[in-house]
Amino acid sequence: MSKAAEASSLSPDTPPPSADAPGPEKIVALSSGPPIFHVGIGHDVGRVRTANEDSLIALTGLQQADSTLPYFGLFIVADGMGGHELGERASRLAAQTFARHVLTHFTTLWLGGAGGEEQLSIQEILQGAMIAANQAVLRHFPGSGTTLTAALMFSNQLFLAHVGDSRAYMVGPEIKQVTRDHSLVQRLIDIGQISPDEATRFAQRNVLLRAIGQTDELEPEFLTLPWEPGARLMLCSDGLWGPIDDARLQETMANSATPQAACDALVQLANAAGGPDNISVICVELAGLR
């Protein structure tokens, strides 16, 4: 992925969010009868790049016991920048650091090992994970950067953490982009200087305004929404959504019997459209969600 990003000199060593920081409600109990995750993954270098700078992580957990916290899923797409070696390392480090932080803090609670420690909200956990990923990339691979879009599924709720221009969609009878691109072209669309159609031909469409590894002070976006029965979650890098419009994305998902079939078909479509960038996609559905 060839991208540029704005950076500014801000105070280093940003502290993690406190347990008193505002955010969603604390972790709550679930009803019995966990649904089953079905997950598909597509990861392809494309037809132009010589190396794949994207990284993916998909983790699911189920407890079949007398537990009020029976299931969760963590899904991450990161799209690196800074040259093929730096970009690949930056995206991998960011995704792994983010996942490690979430697993340390969230699954300890999920498995009942919190003890007397003060319980964090899910948003506080995701905020801390973003800070940890950002600091790791700044420290180990200066001059690089990466997008990161992560989804934590828990208690029939979807918790999203996002920075950059990888995307999260919910796809059912209609397709809905639920993250917002942190890019120059999106900013110009927002202020009315260019139209969405003009954006597809804009010379600086790869310029990011926010990315991991660019500045000590990161401004990620956090969202919470219900997981609608029958819908599929799709996370993807711009190597997928760039060459394929939303209507074709939705049609392909609707015509695919399984998440893996959807990912396979979407990768083929992106390559058929020229494969101008690395292609990464995660598709998730929940069977038995009531």
Structure explained in plain terms:
Helix 1 packs antiparallel against helix 2 (122-140) and helix 6 (246-254) runs antiparallel to helix 7 (259-272). A hairpin with a 3-residue loop joins strand 8 and strand 9. The protein has one domain (35-287): Phosphatase 2c, domain 1, CATH 3.60.40.10. It has helices at 84-110, 122-140, 184-190, 196-199, 238-241, 246-254, 259-272; strands at 4-5, 36-44, 54-62, 71-81, 145-146, 148-154, 157-163, 167-171, 175-177, 207-208, 221-226, 232-236, 279-287. Helices cover 29% and strands 27% of the residues. The longest helix has 27 residues, at 84-110. With 290 residues, the protein is of the alpha+beta class.
What keyword list fits this structure?
alpha+beta; 290 residues; 7 helices; single chain; Phosphatase 2c, domain 1; six-stranded antiparallel sheet; five-stranded antiparallel sheet
Gyration radius, in Å = 19 Å
Average pLDDT works out at: 84
Number of folding domains?
1
Q: What would you give as the CATH superfamily?
A: PPM-type phosphatase domain
CATH class: Alpha Beta
DSSP E strands, number? 13
Q: Which second-level CATH architecture applies?
A: 4-Layer Sandwich
Distance between the termini: 39 Å
Structural class: alpha+beta
Sheet with the most strands, sense and barrel status:
6 strands, antiparallel
Q: Could you estimate the helical fraction of the residues in percent? A: 25-40%
- From N to C, what is the helix and strand string? EEEEHHEEEEEHHEEEHHHE
Q: Beta-strand level of the residues, as a percent range? A: 25-35%
What are the segments in which pLDDT stays under 50 over at least 5 consecutive residues?
4-32
Tally the helices.
Answer: 7
Shape, principal axes of CA atoms:
globular
What would the CATH topology be? Phosphatase 2c, domain 1
